[in-house]
Structures are given as structure tokens and as C-alpha cells.
Design a protein that fits this description.
The chain has about 100 residues and is mainly α. The chain has one domain (about 1-100). Helix content is about 80%, strand content about 10%. The chain has two helices and four strands; from the N terminus they run H-E-E-E-E-H. The chain has helices spanning about 1-25, 45-100; strands at about 30, 35, 40, 45. A two-stranded antiparallel ribbon has the order 1-4. A hairpin with a 2-residue loop joins strand 2 (about 35) and strand 3. The relative contact order is 0.05.
Length: about 100
């Protein structure tokens, strides 16, 4: 199944790459963006789209990294709590055996 998925991904990539290049060539009009009173240099629309995509990917990776660290921290905390509970159970078993023997 992974073999099929890998080749399907490659086929889609081969089909989409020329379309992206074609769309980029049609969006070669240079524009300047204005945001909060700041006007940028003039660049082709296709470059602005690529920049926006890369910023989105970077932001997504940052958020994913933060979330993964939170989850790993929660797992470590749960493992510590579980180990503590096991030690308490073992201590109770030992003390109940000592009481039963006396």
C-alpha cells in the first residue's frame, strides 16, 4: 500500500509541477503590497504567493513543534505518575503481606 501511495504522490507531483510553473509565468505582473502603511518593493505576484506559502508552512511547523513538545511533556508526566502509582501499590502489597504474616 505504501508503494502505491508513493507512486501516486509522485504522479500527482509530476502533473502539478508544470501547472504551477505555468500559473507562475502568467502571474508575472509586478505589484507592491501595502500593509499597515508600509509599502513593499515591487515583485511578481507569483513570488508574493510563494512567500505567503512559505510563511504559512513555517508557521505551521512552529505550531506543530510547540504542540508536540506539549504532548511529550504530558506523556512524561503521565509516565511519572504511573510509576509512582506502581510503587505505591507495591508498597501496599508488601505491607499487607507483613501484616498477614504477624
Amino acid at each position: 500500500m505504501t508503494f502505491l501511495r508513493k507512486w501516486l504522490f509522485r504522479l500527482i507531483l509530476i502533473l502539478i509541477a508544470p501547472l504551477a510553473l505555468l500559473a507562475g509565468s502568467y502571474n508575472s505582473t509586478e505589484v507592491a503590497l501595502t500593509f499597515l502603511g508600509y509599502t513593499s518593493i515591487e515583485l511578481p505576484i507569483s513570488l508574493w504567493v510563494v512567500f505567503a506559502f512559505l510563511i504559512g508552512v513555517g508557521f505551521g511547523l512552529l505550531m506543530n513543534t510547540i504542540r508536540n513538545q506539549q504532548l511529550k511533556s504530558g506523556i512524561r508526566r503521565a509516565e511519572k505518575d504511573a510509576a509512582k502509582a506502581v510503587r505505591e501499590i507495591d508498597a501496599l502489597k508488601t505491607s499487607s503481606r507483613e501484616v498477614a504474616e504477624t
